[in-house]
Amino acid sequence: MSDLRLDATQLDRYSRHVIMDEIGPEGQQRLLDASVLVVGAGGLGSPAIQYLAAAGVGRLGIVDDDVVERSNLQRQIVHGDDDVGRPKVESAADYVTALNPDIDVEPHETRITAANVADLVDEYDVVLDASDNFATRYLLNDHCVLTGTALSHGAIYRFEGQVTFFTNERSSKAADEDADAPPCYRCIFPEAPEPGTVPDCATTGVLGVLPGTVGCIQATEVVKYILGKGEVLEGRLLMYDAMDMTFETVDVLANPSCPVCSDDPEIESVEDVAYEGSCQISAD
Amino acid sequence: MPTEWKLFADLAERAGDKHVTVDAGAGDTVGAALTELVDDRPDLEGRVLTDDGELRSQINVLRNGTNVLVEEEGLETELEEGDELALFPPVSGG
C-alpha cells in the first residue's frame, strides 16, 4: 500500500474519489504516485489529458510535435482559440496546470520514433495512445510489448471508434497456467494497411464529439488499471458507432504466431521494423 | 437463405452501406460469402483481398461476433442459418 500523504487540500479536491470504497485515500494516493504518457494532444488526447489531470495522476507526460490549428478546435478541446499557432504540448500543459496544480506535467515537443521511444516511454507507468497514424500506433505497441508497459489504445474514423487495453503482463500470466496470454495490437491487426489506402480525418472529416467519447473510455481504463480495480478492456475490442449509438465488444485473443508477442517473435527490437510503410519487418 | 455482412469504418464507405446482404447461407463457407460480397461491391476487393486473392492480414472476419480466423476454421468455417458476418479493419485517427 502507498504511504498516505494526502493533505487537506487534496482530501477536498479528491473527496468524491476518497469517499468511495473502491478508491478511498489509498487509491487516490496510487493515482498521485502514478505516471502516464499521453501520445498525441489532439482529439483523443484532449479529453484523456483533462480527465487524467483532474483525477490526480501525479505525473503526466504529453508528446506531440504539432502546433494548434483552428480546424483542430472543433474536437481538440484542451486547446482554445488563443492557442492557435502554439505547440500543442505547451497549450495542453498550460491547461493541466490551470486545472490541477498537483500534477507534474511534462511536455515533449517531438515526434515519437524508434530512436526516441525508449527514452520517452520508459519513464512512465502507462502509455495512452492518442496518436493519429499507424506508424506511431505500431511503434508504441511493439515497444510496450517488448518492455511490458501497459498501453491504452483508442482510434477513430468519421463516426466510429475502437478501444482496447493491453496490460502487456505476459511473464506473470505465463506463470499461471490457467490464464490466457493477453493479446497485443498486432494479434488483432498484424500489419498496417498499405499507406494511402485508408483516408485520414483531414480527408474524411470526423464528428467532433467522437474522440471525446473514445478518449474518455481510454482514460477510464488507465484510471482503473492504476487503481487495480474493475475489469479493464483486455482481450476485448470495443467498437463504438456514434451514428447508430451502438457499442459492440468483440473478444480478441493472443495470436500464437504474433510477430511481436508470441514465444518466438520475429520482432525483437523496434529497430527491426519499417514503421513508415505497412509496419512490417524490414527486408534488410 | 441470404446472409448479412456488417461492415465497419472505411469498408462501409467503399461498399456504400454498413449492411450488405449476399446470396450465401447454411452449408456455404464464410469464404463463399466473402466472395459474394466482393463480387457485389467490387470497390472492396483491393482493400480486403491481396493481389493473390488472399484476405489481407489486417482485415478481421467475425461470425456472430466471433473471429473466425482465430477461434474457428477461418474462411472455411461453415455458415449456419441466421449467422451474421462482419468485417472490421484497423482505424488510425486520433
Automatic annotation (TrEMBL), chain A:
GO cellular component: cytosol
Boundaries of every THIF-type NAD/FAD binding fold domain copy: 14-260
Record-linked Pfam families: ThiF
Entry GO MF terms: ATP binding; nucleotidyltransferase activity; sulfotransferase activity; thiosulfate-cyanide sulfurtransferase activity; ubiquitin-like modifier activating enzyme activity
SUPFAM superfamilies reported in the protein's UniProt record: Activating enzymes of the ubiquitin-like proteins
Keywords carried by this UniProt record: ATP-binding, Nucleotide-binding, Transferase
PANTHER family to which the protein is assigned, alphabetical: ADENYLYLTRANSFERASE AND SULFURTRANSFERASE MOCS3 (PTHR10953:SF102), UBIQUITIN-ACTIVATING ENZYME E1 (PTHR10953)
Name of the protein this chain belongs to: UBA/THIF-type NAD/FAD binding protein
Source species of the chain: Natronolimnohabitans innermongolicus JCM 12255
From TrEMBL, chain B:
Domain of life of the native organism: Archaea
Pfam families per UniProt: ThiS
Signal peptide extent: none
Stretches that traverse the bilayer: none
NCBIfam families to which the protein is assigned, alphabetical: moaD_arch, SAMP1
Name under which the protein is recorded: MoaD family protein
Species this chain originates from: Natronolimnohabitans innermongolicus JCM 12255
